[in-house]
Amino acid sequence: MFFNVFSNIAYQYNGFNLILADVNSGTMVYISNRPGGDPVIQTVAPGLHVLSNGAIDSPWPKALRLGQSFKKYLETNDDSEASLKQMVEDLMMDSWIQSKLISLWYLILVLILNGSTS
After folding, report:
1. Whether 100 contacts 108, CB under 8 Å
2. Which domain does 46 fall in, by range?
3. CB 3.0–4.6 Å: which of 58, 69, 75, 103 could bond 54 by disulfide?
4. DSSP tag of 32
């Protein structure tokens, strides 16, 4: 198919992840040269997938959280259309990260108040 050309030239490029779709055939493929060996070319099955700096659907904590947040977002918003801006804001407000930052700032404040920052 159209994506096979990448398997012949992928080694010429630094590491990449790429999603290609052929709307006419309804085919979507994931292509990567990251593992260091032969390029990976795989068909992407219908469904929700998360692509980070690792392989598609890698169980990285932030990718798992984003996938879960997006599923929840889709369940909450049914078929109603939401603005792209609102969707991005909702998904990018990662409460896990915020809670860690708040904990870090609290620890720093305690250390400062106790005079432990010399």
Report:
1. no
2. 1-58
3. 58
4. E
Last residue of a domain, one of 9, 36, 58: 58
Q: Quote the pLDDT of residue 117.
A: 47
Exposure of 87 by Cβ count < 10 A (0-12 exposed, 13-18 middle, 19+ buried)? middle
- Share above pLDDT 70 across residues of the chain, in percent, rounded to a whole number: 65
**Domain end: 58, 74, 93, which one?**
58
Give the number of domains in the chain: 2
pLDDT digits (tens, 9 = 90+) for 19-49: 888 888 888 888 888 766 678 889 999 888 8
- pTM as predicted: 0.63
